Amino acid sequence: MAPEKKFVSSKLNKFMHPRNPYRTPPSFKKLSMKFPEFRAYCTYDVSGKVHLDFKNPRAVRALTTSLLDQDFDLKVSIPDDRLVPTLPLRLNYLLWIEDLLTHAAHYDSEHFVLAIDIGVGAACVYPLLGAKRFGWCFVGTESDQLSFTSAHTNVQNNNLQDKIFLKKVESNIIFKDVIGEEKVKSWTLECKLRSKVDIAECSKKCAECEPQASQLNPQNEVNFDEGQVKAEIKKTEECSTYLYDFTMCNPPFFSCEEETDTMKKSKKDRGEPLSAPTGAIHEKVTEGGEISFITKMIEESQLFKDKIRIFTTLIGTKAHIKLIKNALSTASPSCSVLTEFCQGRTMRWGVAWTFDPSLKLNQVKSKKDMATNKPLILMMPRSLMSVYSVPSAWNMINKWLHHLKVKVQVLKSSKYFISVNVKAFKATWLHQRRKERQNMRRGVGASNGNMNIDGNNSEIIENGNGRSSKRKREAGAETCGDHDGEMMMKVNICTDRDFKTNRCSEAIPKNQSSLDCSLTSSHLGSPHSISVKEIPQNHSKQENLKLTQGKDKLQNLNKGKQERLESILRCNLQVKQSGALISLEAFYLGGSSGKDGLNQLLQFMRNQLAKPTV
Ligand SMILES: C[S@@+](CC[C@H](N)C(=O)[O-])C[C@H]1O[C@@H](n2cnc3c(N)ncnc32)[C@H](O)[C@@H]1O
Asked: What ranges does the record list as Low complexity composition bias (predicted)?
């Protein structure tokens, strides 16, 4: 038996996506107890530790199928002579795409995500995982008959034919003949039909395009005449540019069989192959190698730039990244390119491009960046929230931040994701309990008062002289007053409805004037903020606006610099929903308190969850 190999080598673990569940290796012991087909390949040492022979392709296959069953409730069979997918890599790719979609704010309006996977393979692993874990729908293509049949069986066995449609293609085709094909088109329409949320969305969009035409589904219920809805959806399709949200592909990377042997021997470029190579030759070899395959993909993507929003592919050879970037820049200057480290038992790189000028894909952090700056994670407990949603969680966190008098800038907000940058100038999160006790002694009641954990509109506001007053606040209303002698608070309470408008709360250092107050918030785009400062009578509104904007820029520049120098903590907080769970991820960005400061801030939040005082 070969020496035991780790499930994920520690050398490569740093390239794992932060949300990848396999950052924590699965328990082989548990798996072997549950799955006899996996147990058959396990050996036990004297201490009872389970070992798996990764050099045995059957053992690797049993591991993958057992994990798919245990962790995703997917029953998958893979023919002996076909590629066995390694799950950490496959999940990394999907999670990276989830980041891209979040960036594109696609989780904003509709839950419905439609994708294309080029070359699904015999396991059909990406569509199965994508459908099961993320709820996405897929059109999958496959050029090999045996893999196509096996993939089809896997989809049927998991009853996912409503979410996955497979098409057998010729190997010289990538997108052409797939997107425009009648069967594919009618399946995608039916797929849209099945999505209640999407129906409502369609109805709204159609109404915008042709007001009288769409009287369907006002209550968001699926009770409709199918033919009528199909017609409506067709109209919607004509109105909306993008039919597919993204495409993905793990292309065959070698140009000939000999190359696979050379690569097997070389550990340099692709990383050490830790487990037995699996798969038929055509799965790994394509004429001209991956360069030619991806170049063709780039060429064809130009034909469908109005139908597909984000194109992605994996690359298996680092040296090819530059060539592919060149091909992309020649194809269209409006492409955004992103290079991303992926990780499995070998290395892969991801590339994404788009022709949508509103998307800046290179703003999405690479896994390497994310891994180097690992976030601190706080899982939001369902039991403490009456509504378990990202906006509710954010309301609660926002309330804490407000209490801590830190500066908050909303960068991105949607129903499923919110990202804010936080600047703190004082470690207000320290000694909260002591402060609470002191306040109690001084006769100031604990400030949790009548506050609902989800952040209702009524709140206790402490004033400068140590007394507290309760007051009702309307969602979106601003207050700009002296707080406790150190900071002034300017608050827009965020409601679910406000999320799309990026309203936010921020604390402003005391020494800032009311002009600064308006500058900061106009910089943040709050429609309410301008009113804070009175506009002089003798200027026209436009002149005043120009003046203010000019001043804005200069003052913001100086203020930014100053704040960077003075801040003790700068961090990025992301509230997100992944599957059924809501989490807060906190990334350290800078500040004199270092990562300890971020740890303390998170500890404050944990304390609030355990025993709310705010
Ligand atoms: C490296 S395998 C990837 C399989 C699967 N996506 C995975 O990651 O496990 C590449 C797959 O693409 C298929 N393929 C090759 N050229 C193709 C083409 N032009 N269209 C669709 N599939 C293709 C191969 O048969 C093979 O199944």
From this structure: 452-466
